[in-house]
């Protein structure tokens, strides 16, 4: 409970009262993210310095008030939702530091910096910050680090964790610590940097990050490969990746996502098809011209109807625009979108497509599949209406079956969106009782009063089930 005395103490910690929000309208605005469910916080604080964060967290820890870190609220798993009220710490105003050091090839950034801005600045020095979530123009680096965000380029370059050299963190007890550093090599003690990355704001608050940059590839080449059967598209992914060529991106869009994009903003995608794969190659211009022809042949051999190489930068950009439009396009049909990112080993992609088709038919749901197919990170999205209780019951069962299918095929609950609230009930299914218990023990060691993003990652009761709608 945030009392008037606590508000007064927060005012003395924060440099400006303007960055303390208590109006009802503000509380409601911060009750959502990109997932499902809404929970009002009691207060919103917008810190812009490590000292402010440390002061707030010390107070919260003393008073046992829940603290919910938040970037831009684009989480698709409920990460920043204040499920137990308390304080939301909004970092979106903390964008002041974005330093590129071309000699050490690093970037040093504040938590609220927009991810695409880091790559844009790196480009000015001929460098690349590879992680590129499709939300990179709106999401913050703090949110990306907390979720260990991936993106299309993950196929060739890996994900956020692969580019973090060091962090500054405020622990749940309000201490300021530094992990890692500025060197590529660093093996001093436990790797706390990697532990914090992907911990979804449950182990501490990231107040600064040192990121690794790499030389920017000279050129890129995009192509669209068209399939009459999505299962063949799954086979093509494995065929390309075993042909000796590693594309930088391989993204799939099924018929429903193509149709939705063309109805939303016509791009000129073929609609009489079962799926398309968008492929990007990067490297030396002569090498990628040759590789594009090879990739085209491989796809045609496994049953692609056609493979079209983008003739110029504009047509390539147009194709990638289509991929980015999928999310906004599919929600026009019905208002509620449940985005999953169950991920399977590449060899199981055709089998996963088959299982998703069965789940869609069995539960009579609108299921759209797109995503980073090259690394097995599919995004099955259920388009529904949360007011329709009868349909939501079927959706609950479908979600459970999607996770079961992914685990049975040797995959995981989440490739990049995180566990948050949405997948917490399924953690034991993937980790087993002892595996989950080890994680819970780590959380208790870091955060003895359970103030840091409580209600996330771990099921709150034994045997908790996913409930999207209450009777
Ligand atoms: C259209 C769309 C496309 C997307 N595409 C991708 C994609 O391709 N790949 C991908 O991985 N994700 C994707 N996402 C999901 C989302 O954008 C990412 O999870 C992103 O990292 C969230 O960043 P954010 O700034 O919005 O953080 P928020 O959503 O505000 O928070 C996310 C998590 O980070 C924690 N957090 C935020 N800041 C800090 C901090 N400074 N310290 C500690 N914890 C913190 C929060 O508590 C929460 O648990 C997409 C989302 C949308 C809406």
From TrEMBL:
Q: Which cofactor does it need?
A: FAD
Superkingdom of this entry's organism? Bacteria
Extract the PROSITE patterns matched here.
Answer: FAD_PCMH
A GO molecular function assigned to this protein is: oxidoreductase activity
Instruction: Write down the SUPFAM superfamilies for this protein, in alphabetical order.
Output: FAD-binding/transporter-associated domain-like (SSF56176), FAD-linked oxidases, C-terminal domain (SSF55103)
State if Heme is listed as a keyword.
Answer: no
Q: Name one Pfam family in it.
A: FAD_binding_4
> InterPro entries recorded for this chain?
FAD-bd_oxidored_4_C, FAD-bd_PCMH, FAD-bd_PCMH-like_sf, FAD-bd_PCMH_sub1, FAD-bd_PCMH_sub2, FAD-linked_Oxase-like_C, FAD-linked_OxidoTrans_Type4, Oxid_FAD_bind_N
The family assignment reads: Belongs to the FAD-binding oxidoreductase/transferase type 4 family.
Instruction: Give the protein's recorded name.
Output: Glycolate oxidase
Taxonomic source organism: Cytobacillus firmus
């Amino acid at each position: 409970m945030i009392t008037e005395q606590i508000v007064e103490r927060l005012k003395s910690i924060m440099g400006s009262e303007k960055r303390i929000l208590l109006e009802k309208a503000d509380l409601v605005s911060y009750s959502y993210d990109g997932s499902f469910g809404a929970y009002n916080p009691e207060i919103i604080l917008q810190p812009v310095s490590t000292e402010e964060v440390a002061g707030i967290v010390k107070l919260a820890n003393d008073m046992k008030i829940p603290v919910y870190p938040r970037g831009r609220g684009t989480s698709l798993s409920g990460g920043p939702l204040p499920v137990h009220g308390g304080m939301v710490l909004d970092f979106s105003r903390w964008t002041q530091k974005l330093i590129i050091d071309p000699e050490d090839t690093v970037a040093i950034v504040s938590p609220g910096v927009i991810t695409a801005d880091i790559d844009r600045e790196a480009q000015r020095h001929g460098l690349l910050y590879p992680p590129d979530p499709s939300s990179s123009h709106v999401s913050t680096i703090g949110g990306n680090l907390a979720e260990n965000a991936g993106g299309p380029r993950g196929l060739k370059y890996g994900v956020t964790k692969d580019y973090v050299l060091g962090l500054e963190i405020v622990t749940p007890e309000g201490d300021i610590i530094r992990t890692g550093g500025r060197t590529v090599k660093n093996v001093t003690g436990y790797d706390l940097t990697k532990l914090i990355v992907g911990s979804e704001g449950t182990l501490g608050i990231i107040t600064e990050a040192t990121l690794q940059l790499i030389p920017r590839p000279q050129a890129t080449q995009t192509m669209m490969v068209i399939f009459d059967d999505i299962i063949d598209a799954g086979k093509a992914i494995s065929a390309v990746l075993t042909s000796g060529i590693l594309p930088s991106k391989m993204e799939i869009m099924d018929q429903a996502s193509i149709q939705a994009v063309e109805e939303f903003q016509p791009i000129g995608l073929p609609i009489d098809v079962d799926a398309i794969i968008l492929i990007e190659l990067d490297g030396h211009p002569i090498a990628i011209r040759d590789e594009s022809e090879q990739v085209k042949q491989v796809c045609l051999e496994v049953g692609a109807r056609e493979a079209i190489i983008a003739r110029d930068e504009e047509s390539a950009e147009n194709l990638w625009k289509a991929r980015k439009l999928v999310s906004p396009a599919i929600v026009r049909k019905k208002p509620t979108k449940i985005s999953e990112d169950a991920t399977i080993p590449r060899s199981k992609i055709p089998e996963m497509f088959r299982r998703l088709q069965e789940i869609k038919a069995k539960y009579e749901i609108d299921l759209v599949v797109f995503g980073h197919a090259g690394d097995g990170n599919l995004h099955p999205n259920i388009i529904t209406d949360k007011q329709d209780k009868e349909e939501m019951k079927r959706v609950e069962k479908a979600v459970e079956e999607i996770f079961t299918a992914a685990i049975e095929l040797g995959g995981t609950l989440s490739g990049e969106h995180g566990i948050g609230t949405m997948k917490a009930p399924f953690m034991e299914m993937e980790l087993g009782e002892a595996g989950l218990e080890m994680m819970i023990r780590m959380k208790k060691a870091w955060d003895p009063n359970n103030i840091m993003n409580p209600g996330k990652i771990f099921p709150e009761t034994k045997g908790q089930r996913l409930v999207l709608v209450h009777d």
